[in-house]
Design a protein that fits this description.
The protein is built from 15 helices and 24 strands. With 546 residues, it is of the alpha/beta class. It folds into 2 domains: 295 residues, 3-Layer(aba) Sandwich (Aminopeptidase), CATH 3.40.630; 171 residues, Glucose Oxidase, domain 1, CATH 3.50.30. Strands 1, 2, 12, 16, 17, 20, 21, 22, 23 and 24 form a 10-stranded mixed sheet that branches. The termini are far apart.
Amino acid sequence: MNFFPPSSLRFSILMIFALTALNYNAAFQAQAQAQEVEMAPAMQVSMPDEIRFARTISMEDLEKHLTVLASDEFEGRETGKEGQRKAAQYIADHFKTIGVAPGGNENSYFQTVPLATRTWNEPVVTIDDKSYNFLKDFYCFSRTARSSKLETNEVMFLGYGIDDPKYSDYAGQDVAGKVVLILPGEPEKNDGTYLISEEFGPSEWSTNWRKKVNLAKRRGVKTLLMVSKSVERDVKMFGNYISSSSMQLSSAGPGDMNTIYISEAMANRLLGNKRKKSVERLGMKIDRKHKTIKLNSQTDLNIDLKQNEEVVESSNVLGFIKGSEFSDEIIVITAHYDHLGVKGEKIFNGADDDGSGTVTIMEIAEAFALAAKDGNGPRRSVLIMAVSGEEKGLLGSKYYTDEDPIYPLANTVANLNVDMVGRIGENYTHGNYVHCIGADKLSTELHEINEEMNAKYTNLKLDYRYNDEKDPNRFYYRSDHYNFAKNNIPVIFYFNGSHKDYHKETDTVEKIEFESLQKRAQLVFHTAWELANRDKRIVVDKAPTK
């Protein structure tokens, strides 16, 4: 017999079953949620420390800090201005809030960087009582020149001013304390190729003006006179850098070498105005014989480079996480927090350059601070340093390395420098990459560690195109890591590449790719974490930077 209850009873029974099922499902979900809450701490504890603390570097915090630092209130953070001082205090307050110890002078978060703004005051050069005019016959860059007077009757002509295994003007020459005159460029062969590069394109001796200048400085040259093929063209091209005021370390005095670019007419007068000794003829003779020519001229030369000076004060901001085991060994992580300031009515907020790097190191500082509070702090000490004066010539980092290394450079294991990491550069349509510059120039291990950390944790494309010595952008020499590299300290410069808003008032927060910024920041943290916690300090196994 089949039994079918009445419809009303059937409905009641179905409702009972439905309610029972709903109650059971709700109870199951509540139980599962409770278990998840209970399991979360356990899962967190079992997660490797480097991942756990890297994940504290969040897009939300990066955006929060950058929105403040790149706001109009901070007026573009120009070195020596009120906006820069506000930014310095904001970074210091962050270090204090997260429990990072002061790393600056006198147990503060600051390292005072003494600067001076200098402007030209009618500089004059006289040769045999004939006066020559600034910006017409000669020029020098205000950023690298020093106020000085010089009287001499001896000038040494020294070819192209090159010292290379394939060709040298300096071999066997004592130039210390002398005034040296050199030609632009480098020797060429009859077939149109260059002697040093052995190609139709010139070597770095022609493309990198710093190479000849730095060589002359190392050799002890007192004043370097470089012949310009066209002073008028150069002034038109570089006029703003030549004649505008410049900011320099106030300690840079007349003892430093001056470089003056002079016309061919001035150079020929220095050489006695003799046809066979004209700079054109001398250059042709060197090219033909592939051998330098050295001449001593007895012509009277008077140089009066007059500058007006105004004292400016700025500061680097330093936070210090002391290592638990190798505390004397230091990993330095840098980013410059200064930018271009206000020009007329335009505020140059510098969200990418280098607000992005600044907030990156602020978040990395917090990650290391959390690790230390958790009892898992770094074995080596970590110095987080926001530097000023980068836009004025790498001045904040130069002061730290050259004049006041609060922590000895001999104990500095590596420098990781972060400058512009918040945008998609001109070479890409996506942000899953970062340019790495300098990692292999001093230490094979540093390059390998960065590669390994990326493969293990972040999986970014590591682009090395700007690491090429022949790259015309010369980025290796253009950010704060270089002042560490020149002191034989291994470096990595993390960079997103240039873009259309570089050094423009349009470099603003809304254009930042925060997901890319977070991932790049986490790579820097992982590399720093490995450097700070490995058993042995990385080895410098490459030739020193020249």
